[in-house]
Amino acid sequence: MDNPPSTELNQVERPSGQKISESFEAVLPVSELIVETEAKPTWRIPIRLGKIFLFSFSLYLFVLAINLMKAGARGITPFIRDLGIISNPIKSLGFGWLFSYLILSGSPVAAVGLTFFDAGLINEYGTFTMITGSRLGASFIVLFIGFIYVLRGRDRATSLSMGILSLTVTATTYLPGLMLGIILLNTGGLDNIQFNSSIMINSFLEGAIYPVESLLTRFLPPWAIFLTGLGVIVVSLNLFDKCLPQMTLKESQIGWVSRLVYRPIVMFIMGAMVTMISMSVSISLSLLVPLSQRGFVRRENVIPYIMGANITTFIDTLLAAVLLQDPTAFTIVVVEMISVTIISMAILIVFYQKYHRSLLNFSDWVTATNSNLTIFMFTILITPLILFVI
Amino acid sequence: MKLLIAINSLEQYRKILCFSAQFVESAGESPTILHIVKNESEQQNRSLGGFSEIAQEILKVPNITSSVRTGNAADEIIKETEKGQFDLLITAEIPINFSRIFLGTGTPHIINKVPCPVMIAKGPCRLIRRILLCDSGAGRSSTLSKFTALLVETLGGHEDVTVIHVMSQISAGPGVAGKQLRAGFDELLEAHTPEGELLDRDIQLLDQPGIHPKPLVVHGLVVDEILSEARKGDYDLIVIGAHVEKNLRRFLLENLARRILKQSDRPVLVVK
């Protein structure tokens, strides 16, 4: 059974048997939490036939969406080129960033970037910066949800900390990663990493996708096909989220994430693995709520978790590149993943403690006063806009 | 209380003895001084140098058992503690020998292996009057309070013990109500939170004649907050629980005790 979009935890039973009333709401569809009094946590992941069907259907929609966008992008290329909105990599960065704000998701925007590249609308650098922009915009989602809570009267620091950390970790790893990635693309060091589509993919496309695509192209203009593709990819990614196995955390007195301080590299790997399954940083972060007692998580554990999540979140973009059957598009996504991984590992190994403290201090500064928060919000809204109009 | 005072270098000789003197008087048993030397000539130097007389003078006890071991400092201290069933090991920091990094070396290796609590004399020798007891609630945290009470009894004076718990948590999601994330001890106790109950239990264990226990809840990064409080309150001793994890947990968990020990500018007692 699917979880409702909000979860209420009403009672936590202590070892003493005393029940304490608490409540929290999780905005995203997080897993159900049952807290009991035994010692060790056990996991039950019931896999139902309905979920397998839903997953297959969402995957089909994803493939269809990529192909529709690919077909549509080719038709609208002259129009977008004339507009000049993504005529250079800086504009692409701003465009990807703003577009993600607009649709509150990064993955569809990254897929759009790849289809634009496939259609010859942007070059590899423009694609790379647009994908980076999409991730920067996507990291705004958690902050945006927190901001709504603040407007509804909730405490600033509690509601916004995770969103601010998510955004600052993304900015501080992706922007240096952008520089490194451009160098890697320029030198062509990773050009050999390519994926050649298999016969299986081709026969699937021919049998199940192309008939639908040709039917739509017969009746719709290119821009409508492109927008249909964009709509379908948003729907398919939402359906992917619903396919997540329902995790029932049982028999835990105290959530492991809030009780123990893990080595940064352990949380880094954990963030990467959870996001690889959930395919979304915001979903991956929301899973921390049921994994921790009272919805609290150790400061020490958060930043490396976000860093790990920020790398494997490209998995759907990588899949999109495979489906486009464009070897260079695949290389671009791989370069993005590798450059962000190198930057993240360098931070973890060389100056993690300083980095960690600086980001937490910054988060405290932002949430300290309304004027600080206003400055921050203004900056993150105006920056992509400036990049876009340059 | 059976004490082992381990001396690795001559530079730390007086400091370790000065620090140990506070415990020796009321310990009830004569202490054992273990000298670790690199070779025989160093052993001769120590025996000729009148160190036994100096030790007697500083510790103010007539009978001291002395022993000398040659070899790697950490290994020899571990062997001595395994042999002698000591209640407390007092020593200074043992430097890390990078050639033995995979075999175990330095103070962290000693803390991992010795069967008793370890007190590391750091900074200038100071009279222990103010103790900062750090309780995370993990493992057997009541041992920490019990041993601290025993230690204070040995010190014999009127000691202030502040039991600190660092709440380093933040809200895991935007919708999580986080009132407790900014609460002090009284509020946490009133709300029957695990943190409030943990500190309350510690205070009850420490509530003995001569001890003035005080609970303290701070919010921030664990290591930073402990070190900051130690400096701010000018504490004479930091007491922490050992992070002796085995197998997979050893690789998964951060060793906060080790980081506190490394960064502290004052004596640290690691209880196990």
Structural features, described:
The complex is a heterodimer of chains A (390) and B (272). With 390 residues, chain A is mainly alpha-helical. Chain A has one domain. Chain A has 17 helices and five strands. Chain A is globular, with a radius of gyration of 22 Å. The relative contact order of chain A is 0.17. The longest helix of chain B is centred in the N-terminal third of the chain and has 15 residues, at 13-27. Chain B is built from eleven helices and eleven strands. The two termini of chain B are 16 Å apart. Strand 5 (296-298) of chain A pairs antiparallel with strand 8 (169-171) of chain B.
Key features of this structure:
heterodimer, A: 390 residues, mainly alpha, 17 helices, 71% helix, B: alpha/beta, Rossmann fold, 2 domains, ten-stranded mixed β-sheet, 11 helices
